[in-house]
């Protein structure tokens, strides 16, 4: 009886120390995502935080049980080990619960994934650009006043994507050499660019500003320096920028 009480006190002390450490870690990671500035950022964040808190709960549960078992079943003189063949009901439970969680995550994320990724459900672009990735820069091709690619009035700008706010932007991704990944964190947009393929992506920015556009796929020794910028303008500012480029 005395031994069990000591084990319980030791477990409580261990959990208090663990929770204090976790508190300070959580203070640093409570908002791991930057501000979401696209129309679908909130939907992605919802799915992300559901997974974040589920895995956080499982981590706490497993950690608590680990500490408990380390204390409760540590070696003691004269204590004999007990052989257990297993528990079919328990095994069924810990198989069914993760399966149900995965199914629920699929159901809550499928519509968001379809809206963002499926070509048939992507909205028509108010602005269209072609972004070509190569070691180690982004080349942004603007179709010019005629609105068509591969014509005489096209213009390519390295590492600079200019778009209007509250307008759907279609990005056609290509790669010249290896796989790259087009990533704009504030828009929650991440899409691989694969050699030999043209892959569409889209976003609609909800706030003006200048935002990072790094490559999120290790693509060679210069990968860390492969960064561009997305500049989101008001409508008037965007029209002025367009006029300046095609004077």
Which stretches are low in confidence, meaning pLDDT under 50 for 5 or more residues running? none
> How much strand content do the residues show?
15-25%
For the biggest sheet, the summary is:
5 strands, mixed
Order of strands across the widest beta sheet? 3-2-1-5-8
How far from one another are the termini?
89 Å
From the structure above, extract its key features.
247 residues; 5-stranded mixed beta sheet; alpha+beta; 4 helices; 2 domains; elongated
If you had to describe this structure to a student in words, what would you say it looks like?
This protein is an alpha+beta fold. It folds into 2 domains: about 1-75 and about 85-115, no CATH class; about 125-245, Sandwich (Immunoglobulin-like). The protein contains 4 helices and 10 strands, in the order H-H-H-E-E-E-E-E-E-E-E-E-E-H. The chain has helices at about 1-30, 40-70, 90-115, 235-245; strands at about 125-135, 135-140, 155-160, 160-165, 170-175, 180-185, 190-195, 200-205, 210-215, 225-235. It has a 5-stranded mixed β-sheet with strand order 3-2-1-5-8, with no helix packed on it. Strands 4-10-9 form a 3-stranded mixed β-sheet. A hairpin with a 2-residue loop joins strand 1 (about 125-135) and strand 2 (about 135-140). Helix 1 packs antiparallel against helix 2 (about 40-70) and helix 2 (about 40-70) packs antiparallel against helix 3 (about 90-115). The longest helix has about 30 residues, at about 40-70. The radius of gyration is 26 Å and the shape is elongated. The mean pLDDT is about 90.
């Amino acid at each position: 009886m005395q031994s069990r009480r000591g084990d319980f006190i030791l477990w409580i002390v261990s959990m208090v120390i663990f929770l204090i450490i976790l508190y300070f870690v959580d203070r640093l990671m409570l908002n791991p995502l930057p501000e979401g500035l696209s129309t679908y950022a909130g939907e992605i964040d919802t799915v992300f935080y559901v997974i974040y808190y589920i895995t956080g709960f499982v981590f706490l549960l497993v950690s608590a049980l680990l500490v408990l078992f380390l204390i409760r079943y540590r070696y003691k003189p004269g204590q004999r080990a007990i052989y257990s063949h297993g528990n079919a009901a328990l095994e069924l439970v810990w198989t069914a619960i993760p399966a149900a969680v995965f199914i629920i995550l699929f159901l809550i994320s499928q519509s968001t994934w379809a809206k963002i990724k499926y070509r048939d459900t992507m909205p028509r672009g108010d602005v269209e650009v072609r972004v070509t990735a190569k070691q180690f820069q982004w080349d942004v091709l603007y179709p010019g006043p005629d609105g068509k690619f591969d014509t005489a009035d096209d213009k390519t700008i390295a590492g600079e994507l200019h778009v209007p706010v509250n307008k759907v932007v279609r990005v056609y991704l290509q790669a010249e050499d290896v796989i790259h990944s087009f990533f704009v964190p504030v828009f929650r947009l991440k899409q691989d660019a694969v050699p030999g393929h043209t892959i569409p992506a889209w976003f609609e920015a909800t706030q003006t500003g200048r935002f990072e556009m790094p490559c999120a796929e290790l693509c060679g020794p210069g990968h860390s320096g492969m960064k561009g910028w997305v500049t989101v303008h008001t409508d008037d500012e965007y029209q002025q920028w367009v006029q300046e480029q095609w004077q």
